[in-house]
Write a structure and sequence with these properties.
Length: about 475
């Protein structure tokens, strides 16, 4: 028998997804979604800005901005919430999808330096200056012996990649990848938590990750309601929505507001185990916590060390809008990532820059054909901080850095805005620690527990079965 009442804590993407799926799956259960702030959606925040003195509007994202088409949990929401017509896609063949860059500062003293295009095909790999480093790493890994000690149950991404692919590969490619996803130091991040597919591939490949990826995985049965979404996403590299990723959280909110079995409490604090002054004491028999783990600890009267074991990375997200076409600002492509400096985190605090106009120009009004040469405005997002720690930054300082990276000085932006994002860094052992945090009828989900992507958060909300 499903319970009479479930409380879902946290109105970010995971909490919204959980309330959505629970309310459909258990129509006779009363669901209360409780959020501390007035606004739902958490870090997903899309804002349409009319540029000062113009009728042009650009869509800016504070958090995630693009989605990958293989994430069925989100495709299902698009189908069920009827958002198909809002979707904008970037085909795999587009330069914006294929050209991804890595900027290796000259002072790093590596053989690879400057702006490098990451190969997107075998042909582009052959002509790439990255070819010798990548070839050596991949071939060496393929033929390399199993080298994981049997007692190692988890290790940092840096340790894993160094062990299998060598130090340069781990530092240059591994650290940059981790910057772009976790805004974290790859020496702190757990491989099993952050990239379980790497760990599994090593096991499947008898000790070699490359051999593991070449071996087919058994297909997994699932029950997603997808309509024609797989056809829509055929040959798509990434996608978003005309009005940004917040389209998803807005649609979830509207759905929940209209449901008879859902109540949303905003600007409400909650106490799990104790009642104090102005907090709402939970009377539900079942609780789904989609809160950051430290926030869950702070409302619990019992100290659970595992909930505060992982640090959070704070990333400064700075959206810049220039009055010039993208062709005058940056190369055509997705953007660039910067690896960890060999001497530690000091100096330029930029983790990477996203060329938003290239993949998301359809969001802006008016939308211009041949946007790369003809658009009047260019939007980019600069990501700073993370493992560099909190520090001062200024827009002129960012432009100085971009000038070094791009070999040309961007003009003064006509508009800019800043948001702060916080991403959990699961450290080695996270996987085991999470298995140990269990409670009666409490489901602990969200980016602090599973993956941090939009797809992972929606999936975690979907997978709560009472
Ligand atoms: C806003 C800052 C974010 C940084 N990481 C994330 C956010 C929201 C979360 C994230 N980013 C990516 C993934 C992988 C999943 C995927 O869909 O591929 C996750 C979980 C990849 C990614 N990184 C950047 C972009 C534009 C994307 C595509 C997905 C997205 O739109 O977030 C750029 C980027 N993100 C961060 C940095 C430092 C950075 C640098 C260029 C941190």
């Amino acid at each position: 028998m499903p319970p009479q009442h479930v409380a879902v804590l946290g109105g970010g993407l995971t909490g919204l997804s959980s309330a959505f799926h629970l309310s459909r799956r258990y129509p006779s259960t009363q669901i209360t979604l409780i959020e501390r702030q007035k606004r739902l959606g958490g870090w997903v925040r899309s804002e349409r800005v009319v540029l000062p003195g113009t009728t042009t509007s650009v869509l800016l994202e504070a958090g995630p901005r693009t989605l990958r088409p293989h994430g069925k949990s989100v495709l299902e929401l698009i189908h069920l919430l009827n958002l198909r017509d809002e979707v904008i896609t970037v085909p795999k063949s587009a330069t914006a999808a294929k050209a991804r860059f890595l900027y290796v500062p000259k002072m790093y003293g590596d053989k690879i330096e400057g702006m490098q295009t990451l190969p997107s095909s075998i042909v582009s790999l052959l002509g790439s200056p990255l070819f010798p480093t990548l070839l050596q790493a991949v071939v060496g890994e393929f033929f390399g012996r199993r080298n994981r000690p049997p007692d190692v149950l988890d290790e940092s991404v840096d340790a894993f990649l160094t062990r299998r692919f060598g130090e340069s590969f781990a530092r240059i490619f591994g650290s940059a990848l981790v910057h772009g996803i976790y805004a974290a130091d790859s020496r702190q991040l757990s491989t099993r938590a952050a990239f379980p597919s790497l760990w599994e591939a090593e096991e499947r490949g008898g000790g070699s990750v490359v051999r593991g990826f070449l071996r087919k995985k058994a297909p997994v049965e699932d029950d997603y309601e997808l309509g024609n979404m797989l056809d829509v996403m055929k040959d798509v590299s990434v996608y978003s929505f005309r009005d940004g990723i917040q389209t998803l959280t807005n649609a979830l909110e509207s759905y929940l507001v209209a449901r008879d079995n859902v109540r949303i409490l905003r600007e409400t604090n909650v106490s799990l185990l104790e009642k104090t002054g102005d907090t709402c004491k939970l009377s539900s028999s079942h609780v789904v916590s989609a809160l950051p783990l430290a926030a869950l600890q702070s409302i619990s009267s019992v100290f659970i060390p595992h909930l505060t074991a992982n640090p959070m990375s704070t990333v400064d997200v700075v959206n810049l809008v220039f009055r010039a076409p993208p062709s005058e600002i940056h190369p055509e492509g997705f953007g660039y990532l910067i690896p960890r400096p060999p001497t530690g985190y000091a100096g330029c605090r930029i983790l990477g820059v996203v060329f938003d106009s290239c993949s998301l120009h359809e969001q802006d009004k008016p939308n211009v054909e041949d946007y790369y040469h003809k658009s009047e405005y260019t939007k980019v997002t600069v990501m700073l901080g993370g493992p560099y720690g909190r520090g001062e930054w200024t827009v002129p300082g960012i432009l100085d850095e971009m000038e070094v990276h791009l070999g040309r000085r961007p003009p003064r932006p006509v508009y800019w805005q800043h948001h702060e994002g916080r991403i959990p860094t699961p450290t080695p052992g996270h996987f085991t620690r999470m298995k140990e945090v269990v409670g009666d009828n409490i489901f602990i989900i969200g980016s602090g527990v599973g993956g941090v992507s939009v797809v992972d958060c929606v999936f975690a909300g979907r997978e709560v079965y009472l």
